[in-house]
């Protein structure tokens, strides 16, 4: 089992950065020692289709609960 398999889906909550999307790992395949293929599912992945935006995958440390980006009072991402 991979570390990624242990993450449960998280519901979007008020205050998160507007471009933050939560997804679920459907599968993980190790292609080479330094490369793996993730298959993700979410209700809002259309903007990441072919020739579309890139994304960053945020993985929290193992020893604490995740702290996801939020919007500050000034509109900046924290």
Structure description:
The chain has 78 residues and is mainly beta. The chain has one domain (1-13, 21-66). The protein is 0% helix and 21% strand. It is built from no helices and two strands. The chain has strands at residues 24-32, 35-41. The chain has a two-stranded antiparallel sheet with strand order 1-2. The termini are far apart. 0% of the residues are buried. The model is unreliable at 1-12 (pLDDT under 50).
Count of individual domains: 1
Order of helices and strands: EE
- Contiguous low-pLDDT stretches (5 residues minimum) are 1-12
Mean pLDDT score: 76
How many angstroms separate the termini? Answer: 32 Å
Number of helices: 0
Binned, the helix content reads: under 10%
What is the quaternary state of this protein?
Answer: single chain
Radius of gyration: 14 Å
CA-based shape: globular
Q: Strand pairing plus helix content: what structural class? A: mainly beta
Largest beta sheet, briefly? 2 strands, antiparallel
Kindly state the number of beta strands.
Answer: 2
